[in-house]
Each structure stands twice: as structure tokens, then as C-alpha cells.
Amino acid sequence: MRLVRFNDDRLGLLTDDGIVDVTDRLGLETNDPLREYATRDLDASEFSDADADYDRGEVRIESPVRRPGKVIAAPLNYENHVEEALADKDIVTQEWFTIEDKGYFLKAPSSVAGPDDGIEVPFSDRRVDHEIELAFVMGEDVKDIDSDDVWDAILGYTILLDVSVRGDQDRSNRKSYDTFTIIGPCVATPDEIGDPHDLEMELQLNGETRQQENTGEMIYSCADIVEYASIGATIEAGDVITTGTPEGVSAITGGDTIDAEIESVGSMVVDVTERDRSFEDVDVEKSQLNE
């Protein structure tokens, strides 16, 4: 199945013919239907052969999960991006380490948006980069889980664009602006994927291929990341885990168009806009607490 959230709070199955709306069929009641679907351990597969209720072009595709409890991200997880980062002073500032060195990092749930929302570059004078990544949504709560047991806890796989402002600020700050975590277009269940570590992925910027890699080149597997992140911490159903980006990251600006595709998962087109604001104009004054 390919599960998709559309038109704000509807959950559907993405098929060759369009979208089958399963919201009412499954009795989903919240405005985050995929997260509810995961926590209630429901099964929409019985509706896979139903006639489509909507054409793809009739609806607005949202991020599969509206507000994940956590977005857990693996830093430098492809050898060729490690080399790229070390050679680029704009990338390397705080990002030269892998999970083994410094662990994972978190992105703000409020940064999550869907492909139809687009990316908004917050500052006109700071470099902002695209990063395509294979991500997945957890289907159950886990804690202190062994990597061999992770696979049964994954609901499905999706495409994630991890957008980053380059600079000296804390990583979670630079990666958590609104629209800096584009997820979509769907969540493909494991039976659709086969081996998640043998998928071709590609990102084109304005029609030019910038990133192209097979997920088999990851340093740490999907299961390794969950095992590490779950040490002493509960990863909940509906949380999003993203697995790092390969080489080829480059700057984006207003007016750009990103085409992102991962084999067996799907593809999405994302437009980029830009705010008319300079980072150099940001002036945060200290409170005079002791006066």
C-alpha cells in the first residue's frame, strides 16, 4: 500500500487510478490520520481494490504525518557525503561527525510540510541547501530495541527533503525553520519496497541531476539508526526517522524547482520561494534582567 494524507485531514491509498479515501471506512477521527492509523494498528489493505474517489490532481497532498512526535535524523551517513562535507567549509562547521561519533539529531516537528506546501527560504543572504533522504515512519512504540527486531516496527518508507541553512548556529536551529522538512508524497509499506537498502534515489534541481545514489551506500542501516536512537528513549508510532543524504547537496533559492524520486516509494515536485529578509538584519537584544 501507499498511504497518503490529503486535503488536510483525509487518509487515502494512492493507486494507479487515483486516491481511495479510507478515512471514514476506517473510522479515523483526528486531524493526523496516519499517526492515528499507526497507533490503532489498523489495516487499510482491504480497500486496495476499491474504485478511486479522487484523481491525484484533484487533491492537495500533505505530509503523511502532520506532526510527528519526533523527527530523528542521522548525520553524515554516506561516505561520499562525508568526503564532500570535509571539503566544503560551509557544510563542515558542525557536521563532520557520524552517529558513532556524536549520535543523532532532532528536527522540530513544526518544520514538517508536504510537497504541495513548498520550501520557503527564510533569509536572502544565507546559503540554504537541499538534501534528499530515505525516511520511514514507525508503526509501533519501541525502546531498547535490537536492530534485528526493528523491521517489524516500521510502518513504511517515504521521501524526505532535509533543508539546511549553513552557518555556525546549532544544527537543530539551522534545520528546523518552517518547511525545512518536506515529507511525501506517501508512505509505502514494506511489502512495496523489498530491500530498503537497494533503492535508487535522485534529486534534480531545475531539471539538472544534483544527487543520485543507491541507499545501499548507507554507513548505518535503517535498523542501526533505530537501535541507537531507542537506547533509553521511547520511539513512538508516527515518529519519523530519516537516514542521511549522499553527495551532491547544493544551494537553493526562490524560483527553484526540486524533483525528488526514490525507487518503489514515489516522486514529488517541490517549489522554492524566498522571504525578503536578511539574516544580517536580525537583531536580538539581551534583556536587562539585573537592572
Automatic annotation (TrEMBL):
Molecular function (GO) terms for this protein are:
acetylpyruvate hydrolase activity; isomerase activity; metal ion binding
Domain of life (superkingdom): Archaea
According to UniProt, the name of this protein is 2-hydroxyhepta-2,4-diene-1,7-dioate isomerase
Keywords tagged on the record: Isomerase, Metal-binding
The residue ranges crossing the membrane are: none
Pfam families, alphabetically? FAA_hydrolase (PF01557)
Show where the Fumarylacetoacetase-like C-terminal domain sits: 70-272
